[in-house]
Design brief:
The protein is built from seven helices and 40 strands. It has 814 residues and is mainly beta. It has a 22-stranded antiparallel barrel. It is globular. The two termini are 44 Å apart.
Length: 814
């Protein structure tokens, strides 16, 4: 135990030492462009009065911070761009103006991330983002609603726990296993390779924005074919030494949530601390409660105007009941079945519990060396335990019975992870234009101890040892992309070379030691070299004139009146329309359970290899009018060599590569500001009324293997999200959000038992703030029309979703 902790600590200290070395040896002054006055120009008196509500006014740039976009640079901190600002009358190539980069990236009001964002290149990829602040307050961690404007993501609901299950274009949503889920660019997986489940998702109140990168994400962030979902967390505000926020929510079934945060800046040091508590009894007959306590501390030290350290410490502790699943009535039914049609609130498991503890630390160093070069180094490490106890003797939608029901299975997994992620971006001149290189190295190490016990009563919390094994992962990666930029055309080749070693050693296996004759314990170590390549293309069809911030006004308060700087470009006015396309590879590494199965009757195919994916994306996106944006396109990808189990004639089960699947479809998304439309394209004095809609049409099928011709799990033919959001400044927010999902299956056999019928669910939520934004009240109705549905099927049966339920609360800011 101590050696593992020392290893994690040593890695973190090595990362800190590296950061300090870079700071001392390479620190030279970056070219700085003074921040143009007028960042807050156009803010009316009411907006000024609301300045104490800083939920959407984050940490400004430490120097003249500008973010480069496709044909412009975006001034950091400017989130609402007014067409009334000074514009350049002559057409210019804005990327010929290169200024100091920015630490804090605020995406433009456009349906995609900037082409170059910090140390990453997004050009040529299908990307999108959402800011939770644009919605009214949600009662829980309601990512179904937060992702309402994002196509391609399905959230399989698990109402008796705080776990969020994200699925992507027909890939399994359970525990988000087939997506790369990140927090500030660092994986949230329990163990990124050998145990890639995601049991933790950040509380939405602490999230600044959520980014989704589709095809090509594996080149930047590593394995999983389902793209990358990145939670960008809030930073301390710099306008005052202290801010306070508290949100208290009360809802159906004794639901209560408290989110309390403090933040501010004292000199060069900024801080952001929050506490998150949630509890509920649940709507099921029994055992559907959960209780959660979590917190985070973030410290930001601005060493100089162009370098800083960010230390983040996270703690998370939750326990929830697992009330079991139900089944639908058939012509022939198993004994002890509990039917959904009889009582959807019934429980089939009364003793099953799940606990998760997670403690994580990240130390990040950011440095802008010049107007063209930026580096980002993250050292991270943490410890996670996942514990569960589950009564034996039960089946799909049945009560436990027989002698096995007098016992239970207890499992403890403890994962220790550490790593280092180093990235650099450099701009350079090429053929009278500016191109960009971005790349880096990644190191990751993890140890997982797994212990399985057999309890002698259904509610036992410890018992007789059944299995004990240790898995270990070493991973190193080199990755790079280059954006060749020629006027309106961007060409982005990229690659990632992954060097992966996975091993698992059995220390004890009851089934093998008691077999006749006894079997040897397993010890397996495999090395994989996985090269990934990709190519992205982007072409701007229409481009508006650049918008510039007005120069400082002579004599203005706090403004340097001598030799004021020239206006700086901050964005591009509509219209803007571009084509984009991507072809890229991704892969799915083996899990520890696939490297060495724990069952005595299970063997591993000798030539077992990782799954692989080839992905294509082609689309058209843009903002042709100030009040309208859109993104339409098609996709096609394969997921070959999927791992599964095959029954052998001798009674054994073989784990091997069992089949291939292909996924193809069409996505379209649009957002229309009705009030801006009525006002002739200018911002309306009556606020914003956003009508949104997006659709994903999907045709997915297994093309080989035992399930050939079947539909993969969680792959509905269509998914539609639509609704409206009204905002009046920051005083009033009202949202009606709808999710419509076609039939889907919870297993690859497409069985009746695990079928998920189509559903149509709507949520209504509203928020009002007063006293200059210092106090707010909110209320809402989830599942407004009382839809009777389920969105998830697990091994224990159907998991019912919430019927109509209510919530309300109060928030205080100062």
């Amino acid at each position: 135990m101590s050696s593992k902790i020392n290893l994690a600590l040593g890695t973190a200290l090595a990362g800190i030492a590296l950061c300090c070395l870079v700071e001392s040896s390479l620190a030279h002054e970056a070219l700085a462009l003074p921040v143009a006055a007028g960042d807050n120009d156009g803010v009316d008196d009411d907006d000024a009065d609301d300045k104490d509500d800083k939920s959407h006014r984050r940490r400004p740039a430490t120097s003249g911070s500008v973010v480069k976009t496709d044909s412009a640079v975006l001034a950091n901190g400017v989130e609402k761009l007014s067409l009334a600002q000074t514009t350049v009358t002559e057409t210019t190539e804005a990327e010929s103006v290169i200024v100091t980069g920015s630490f804090d990236i605020y995406p433009v009001e456009y349906p995609a991330l900037p082409p170059v964002e910090g140390t990453r290149i997004n050009a040529g990829k299908k990307t999108s983002f959402v800011k939770p602040e644009e919605f009214p307050v949600f009662p829980n961690n309601d990512y179904r609603d937060v992702m309402a404007t994002t196509p391609g993501i399905i959230v399989s609901e698990e109402p008796s726990s705080p776990i969020i299950n994200f699925g992507y274009r027909g890939l399994d949503s359970q525990r988000s296993e087939f997506m790369q889920v990140l927090k500030d660019g660092i994986s949230l997986k329990n163990e990124q390779f050998g145990f890639p489940e995601t049991h933790y998702t950040p509380i939405v109140d602490a999230v600044e924005r959520i980014e989704l990168i589709r095809a090509g994400a594996a080149l930047q962030f590593g394995p999983q074919p389902g793209g990358a979902l990145n939670f960008v967390m809030k930073m301390p505000r710099q306008d005052a030494p202290f801010h306070f926020t508290t949100i208290n929510v009360f809802g159906s079934d004794e639901y209560y949530r408290n989110y309390t945060a403090i933040d501010g800046t004292l000199g060069a040091l900024g801080y952001y601390l929050y506490y998150d508590h949630r509890q509920i009894e649940g709507f099921r007959e029994a055992n559907s409660d959960y209780d959660l306590n979590a917190g985070s501390a973030r410290l930001v030290w601005d060493v100089t105007d162009d370098s800083r350290f960010i230390l983040t410490l996270d703690a998370y502790d939750e326990e929830h009941g697992e009330p079991g699943g139900l089944r639908r009535r058939e012509a022939v039914n198993l004994p002890n079945s509990v039917f959904y049609e009889d009582d959807r609130n019934a429980s089939t498991r009364f003793f099953d519990r799940f606990r998760l503890e997670r403690y994580y630390a990240t130390l990040e160093y950011q440095k802008i060396f010049s107007e063209r070069t930026q580096i980002d180094i993250k050292a991270f490490g943490g410890y996670l335990t996942r514990w569960s106890k589950r009564q034996r003797g039960g089946g799909f939608g049945t009560l436990p019975s027989g002698p096995d029901a007098d016992t239970n299975s207890i499992q403890l997994r403890a994962a220790y992870t550490e790593g280092l992620d180093t990235r650099v971006r450099h701009d350079y001149d090429l053929l009278s234009d500016v191109s960009t290189f971005a790349g880096g190295i990644y190191f990751y190490h993890a140890i997982q101890d797994r212990r399985d016990e057999r309890g002698q009563i259904p509610d036992a919390e410890n018992g007789m040892l059944r299995n004990l094994n240790t898995g270990e992962t070493w991973d190193g990666a080199i990755f790079a992309e280059n954006r060749f930029h020629f006027g309106r055309l961007s060409i982005v080749p990229g690659m990632r070379l992954e060097f992966l070693n996975q091993s698992l050693v059995e220390d004890f296996n009851f089934a093998k030691s008691h077999a006749e004759p006894p079997e040897l314990l397993a010890s397996q170590s495999d090395f994989f070299f996985v090269p990934l390549f990709g190519l992205g293309l982007g072409y701007v069809l229409l481009e508006g004139e650049p918008i510039v911030a007005p120069p400082p006004v002579a004599g203005g308060k706090g403004v340097e009146t001598k030799n004021p700087v020239a206006p700086s470009v901050i964005a591009t006015a509509p219209p803007r329309v571009e084509l984009y396309g991507t072809v890229s590879q991704a892969y799915r590494p083996l899990t520890y359970a696939e490297v060495v199965p724990t069952g005595a009757s299970t063997v591993v195919n000798g030539d077992l290899k990782e799954g692989n994916s080839l992905q294509f994306e082609l689309g058209l996106r843009g903002k042709p009018l100030p009040y309208l944006n859109f993104d339409v396109g098609g996709f096609y990808f394969t997921f070959d060599d999927q791992v599964g189990e095959i029954s052998l004639p001798n009674g054994l089960t073989s784990t091997g590569n069992v089949g291939d699947a292909r996924y193809m479809g069409f996505e379209a998304a649009t957002e229309l500001d009705v009030l801006s439309l009525i006002n002739g394209g200018s911002p309306s004095p009556y606020g914003n009324f956003l009508l949104y809609g997006n659709i994903t049409l999907l045709d997915a099928e297994f093309t080989s293997g035992p399930n050939e011709g079947n539909t993969p799990i969680y792959a509905p033919d269509y998914q539609i999200k639509t609704g409206g959001i009204y905002r009046y400044k920051d005083s009033v927010k009202v949202g009606l959000l709808g999710t419509i999902v076609a039939d889907e299956f919870g297993d690859a056999n497409n069985s009746f038992e695990r079928a998920i019928p189509a559903y149509n669910v709507w949520d209504l939520t509203a928020e009002v703030r007063f006293w200059n934004g210092r106090v707010g009240v909110f209320a809402g109705i989830r599942n407004l029309f009382d839809e009777d549905y389920w969105g998830e099927v697990r091994d224990e049966g159907i998991v019912p979703a919430y019927r109509r339920n209510y919530y309300g609360g109060i928030e205080v800011f100062f």
